[in-house]
Amino acid sequence: MGILLFAACAREGSVHFKALNKQAAREYLTPVRPGVPGGQPFWNVYSTKFTFAPAFDFPEMAGAEKYRFDLWYLDNLWREIYLPVPEKRPSAKAQLEKYSATSEPVASFTATSPKADLSPVWGKLPEGYYGLVVTAVDASGQDIAPVGTWEFLRDFPFCGPYPEPVRSYRDAALMALWFNHRQPLVQKIHDWDPDTLYESENVFANKFIGSVISSEVLMAQQIPTFRDECLENARKAADLLISLAQPEGTPLAHFPPTYYDSQILAGKARNDTRIGGTTVSDLQEMTMTLDALHAVRGYLNLYDFCGERKYFDEAIAILRTYDRLVDSTGFMPKKLYIKTGEGVNEAGALSGNLLTVIRRLRKQYDIRDFDGLADRCERWMNENAIRDFHMSAQFEDVSIDQHPYQNLTNITPNVYARYLLEKEAVSQEDLTVATDLLHFVEDQFIHWGLPRNADGMFYCNVPGVYEQYSCRISIDSSNDAYINASLSMYDRTGDRLWYEKARALMNTVVNSQAVTGEIPTFMGLQYGAPNRYFWINCSLRSAQTLLRFAEYEERLD
Q: d(Cα 492, Cα 315) in Å, to the nearest integer?
């Protein structure tokens, strides 16, 4: 402990955290892409925690000259708030009566619009839960009626320095790769038996098997002693994934499935059995559109390492299917029927990961066949997801039949911000959008600190990044997604605050790692012991990010 304390003190003196903390505090006074009547919608319809000063879509009232914003401090005890659809929420009048019956407001201000942001008082509010009521006031100063209400967590700001890592980033990466290598999913890849391959009932074929390929290739590169063994495992995994893919000539040619389920294969599952949040019949009939990119990355990584052309060709074949799936506007469905290739509904997939793969093909292999596809995807992102600031979750285990903005995520904005920042020529518009996206992620998904729960403990490891509104727990790969985007922002701007935010989150990943090398996927108390919910695709991302971060630290030192 003394060594870590000394290291933290030394770092504080060299990095000047007081200045960085003040910079962060100033930035938190500016709302993140607030809605504009008749223009961009208010994206925070279901938001319950804020680090940046929020603004809400409260209605104007006839006869109002101004609006009074009153905030009541509720408490500082951790809880999860999930907002119902707007029509089922308490009225502003009912909330005003409830708050007024117990205490006086702790902060108030007036504005000419009920949609004004909370910046006049935001910097003065201690961390904790608040109730807000906005009341219309007439020209004589008399209250007309309350027009809007919200309950939310005023979250902890960035305030460094944070704990130092217990081991080097490179050592943590190698430990994670070694843990991955020893998992049954990898060790049994030679004798595929889905009933014993993985401890859960199902295997996410693209994510898990695709990540076995990339993880084993990365371990072979980093620990050459195991080169031959890792290469054999990677080949077996790639060949298995290819064998599971849809045949040439079908609507989803060369796409491996989202799920590969042992219960289905054994004929034991009824069609109404729910696995991974969906029914078995759905597992058989549907796939997530973007999941095949895990396979693409695995095939390309294996090709780069061993030079076997068939893996490269398989990756290109999947990209050709994407080229057919994405229409002339750049739209592709988030979820597809396997037999027809048609979308399950009108929900669109956010194409940051696809754009990143296309850029890799162009830069690394000089393949320009998919430049038109990239143009279509980027146009759709700008004209839809960015315009409306709708960063919807793209996960297979969550319903896609939800209200707009009901389940936002950190992953898609992080990926797209990094894509924009790593262009050869970054425009001012690219930089502005990327900044907004990363501020949005921090606002909605990063906890720099947390209120304690009723037992006096922290709900999850902090600082940390939670995954989506439907999964409010720190996830290792969510940390990694923001870290990578933030490092790319640091490369573009040289602003040290971006780097220190990334470093604080990277240290949480390291300090969450078990002595076995496992980096737990779910970094929180309620998920129990490590390995209960271990996802190798997340661990792979952590190892890759740790190795990238190690290079930064070595340069800066």
A: 31
